[in-house]
Amino acid sequence: MKQAQFILYNQLRESYLQEDIDCFLYVHHIWKIIFQGKELKLNTKSKILDYAGGKDFVDELKKNGNTAEFVISKDFFHALEAFTKKHDIEKWLVVKPVEDYVYKNILKLSQKLKKVGIEMSIVPDTESFFLSHEDFQKQYKKPPIMEYFYRFMRKKENILMTADWEPEWGEWNYDKENRKFDKKHEKIWDFSLKKTAFLEEAWDYYDTDISSWIFPINRQTSLDLLEYFLEKHIDRFWVLEDAMYQDDPYVHHSLLSTAINFWFLSPREVVERIAKTDTAMNNKEGFIRQILWWREYMYHFFQFYKESIYEENFLDHQRKLPDFFWTDASTTSMNCLQTTLRQVQTENFSHHIQRLMIIGNYALLANLNPHELNKWFFEYYVDAFEWVVTPNVLGMSQFADGWKLATKPYVASANYINKMSDYCKNCKYNPKEKYTEDACPFNYLYWNFVHDNKSTFEKWRQQFVVRNLEKIDREKIQELKKAFLK
Ligand SMILES: Cc1cc2nc3c(=O)[nH]c(=O)nc-3n(C[C@H](O)[C@H](O)[C@H](O)COP(=O)(O)OP(=O)(O)OC[C@H]3O[C@@H](n4cnc5c(N)ncnc54)[C@H](O)[C@@H]3O)c2cc1C
Ligand code: SF4
């Protein structure tokens, strides 16, 4: 029996290949993507990655003596039907996609193929996460407290554990040792990615000039980036993890999310490589935690709540995203927001604290609709995939799921941004003022938010925040908010 494997965009690594396969097909899909009933206008960098990554992988397969094709098509069905006829295929295999809406499309595709006599089996994905969701469900009835999950994963994977099953160096985590802002920090990010012919071909196809391309487009460039990060950045990663600099968008972050989310690199190999690296324990543990805890937890959390999460808007925030999210960011005078949004609009990337404490913080305080924000993140970020963007935006950042993911809302006044960045010194607003004309909007928006959610703050055991409301001129901050959001 002649078998073919249909390879999907985030299965671009040898270990996704199944046994006894005669031919492989990769389809670069160029038609509308429908997400939650609306068209998803994906950024061009994601499309280029899909094109260049797929073509590169098919080329590798061919070089290794396999029959493999890269096809550009408006729909999977016709691409698979044509390939079936051309290569006389009797059976198709596809590894179950990680993304839920893609999985639903693959189910529809297999039914459609069945109607014309073509069989397609969906095989389980054993590669993408440390723990399959079935195994997660065997362990937990519902997503547990995150710290317990992390400890479970460290033990299960035997990562940074002693022979007596205690955490190496005695602590499970070194969270308190980050959150510094170093005024003397100097930008050293200078990774130069080896461009491939396929990347150039994809640029031409999308008629775009991306001279400063930074994201890995195949396995080799992903391994290069990982080694570059370990050589140049990991020693300062943890201490400056939350710091933000006007002229250094990446600080000491790895920029590996895209490579890992397209699965050019497996999360396990990244964690094992970091564990072997010669660096201080806080850097090692801090980085491993991001993947073994946050990334893994987000996936299982989303699997658990995927049916209900899009229905929820706990704080009932309904305001539309301002135009400057979509068009020219310079129409907002808030320097932190303008700098971050401009970066996202040009590079389709920003680091974690910019996502959480600039964009997310602003959206929450300005009562923006969390679902519209989620779609915006999905469309704009090059590392965005449903299983990771949705829990991060709706759960962690916007609290739309109410209590399920975050144990406290990630909101802050200008004080935090001023402490953790150099944005405020280039801003027309004053981070220290609450009531004046040049008062930073984060200040009065924050105190309005605390007022409006007093009881929730109390439930979050943040009575000390609520107590400070007594010192706030309620009428004035309301008036300022109204004028600012008009
Ligand atoms: C509102 C919001 C939206 C986000 N959207 C995405 C998204 O679409 N895709 C995405 O991969 N991450 C997302 N994140 C998580 C995180 O911001 C990015 O993974 C990180 O900024 C990517 O940059 P990096 O590779 O340099 O990360 P580093 O700081 O170098 O961290 C290392 C790795 O840890 C993992 N990681 C860290 N935090 C998280 C997290 N909260 N969830 C999942 N993985 C994590 C990533 O794989 C990342 O590459 C989001 C966070 C927030 C607050
Ligand atoms: S003053 Fe306010 S708006 Fe301006 S950069 Fe600082 S926090 Fe952002």
Overview of the structural elements:
This protein is of the alpha/beta class. Helices cover 47% and strands 7% of the residues. The protein has 21 helices and seven strands. Helix 18 (441-452) packs across helix 21. The protein starts with a strand and ends with a helix. Iron/sulfur cluster binds at residues 334-336, 414, 417-418, 423-424, 427, 429, 431, 440, 442.
Overall average pLDDT: 94
- DSSP E strands, number: 7
List low-pLDDT spans: none
Task: Name the bound molecules.
Answer: flavin-adenine dinucleotide, iron/sulfur cluster
**Bulk shape:** globular
Following the backbone from N to C, one meets helices and strands in this order, namely EEEEHEHEHEHHHHHHHHHHHHHHHHHH
User: How far apart lie the N and C ends?
Assistant: 66 Å
Query: What is the domain tally?
Result: 3
Number of helices: 21
Write the layout of secondary structure elements.
Elements: E1 3-7, E2 23-29, E3 34-35, E4 38-39, H1 44-63, E5 67-73, H2 76-87, E6 91-95, H3 100-115, E7 119-123, H4 133-139, H5 146-157, H6 197-205, H7 219-232, H8 234-237, H9 257-261, H10 267-275, H11 281-305, H12 323-326, H13 335-347, H14 352-365, H15 370-380, H16 386-397, H17 414-420, H18 441-452, H19 454-459, H20 463-467, H21 474-484
Parallel strand pairs: 1-2, 1-6, 2-5, 6-7
Antiparallel strand pairs: 3-4
Helix pairs in contact: 1-6, 5-11, 10-11, 11-16, 13-14, 15-16, 18-21
Bound molecules: flavin-adenine dinucleotide and iron/sulfur cluster (SF4).
